[in-house]
Amino acid sequence: MPHPAHLPHRLLFWLLLLPILLGTGCMLQDHLLYYPERISAAQVAASYPGLRPWPAASDLRGYLVEPRVAPRGTVVVFHGNAGHAAQRQWYAQELVRQGLRVLLAEYPGYGPRPGKPGEEALVADARESLRVALSEFGSPLLVIGESLGAAVAAGAVGGHGDEVAGLILITPWDRLVSVAQHHYPLLPVALFLRDTYDSAARLQDFPGPSVVVLAQEDRIIPAEIGRRLFATLPGEEQLIEIPHADHNDWPVHVDAAWWSRLIEILVPPR
Hints:
Elements: H1 7-33, E1 35-36, H2 41-47, E2 52-56, E3 59-65, E4 73-78, E5 82-83, H3 89-96, E6 100-105, H4 119-137, E7 141-146, H5 148-157, E8 166-170, H6 176-183, H7 189-192, H8 199-202, E9 210-215, H9 223-232, E10 237-242, H10 256-266
Parallel strand pairs: 1-5, 4-6, 4-7, 7-8, 8-9, 9-10
Antiparallel strand pairs: 2-3, 3-6
Helix pairs in contact: 4-5
């Protein structure tokens, strides 16, 4: 046991070190959580010709892809933390086959959009994107969020719960701190996090049906964390686990029939 005379020195050491740790953690948080890739609107148009700026080029919130048939509904997709929304064009390719109009939502500070990423900014912007989508296209409106986008979607539907026909959360977490504690078990990560993304709390009042999709071999957001979120969801919900899939490769483990079954859970076929 340390001699009492040593305690003040150790206490002083930790009192000096703690602010440094907290400051460093807060600075690193944005770097670890957000990986935006900047790209101009002209570059998007040249590299992704199938995407139409939405709602307009002068007020970009994302990209629109229409099915060839009359749409059975609209789906807004909130992407993961890296890159930009146009890189998720494959979502649109899969979902338009299901007869859905697709909006690939872009975040502030990502792609050509101005701003800086952060929980408050992303969630507020996502709520506004849902409002614009509902105003322009009406119901039924589905919401899909993947990884970080699942947390953004959870925050966004809190402002439009009665108007959202269904919610699909792919590789989600219950709370961001759960993921941080998994990767940094020896650090007091709860003290570092400025953005908490508490999806479990935000979805407590969501009245619509929801589907949670997990990658069973997920090494970034372990499936157990997603199962904990699923256990907290109110109302009608369904859990789907993709065998052998990791966080980033799950799309190669599913096919068009899988997407059809997923969408039919929330929007019956015509």
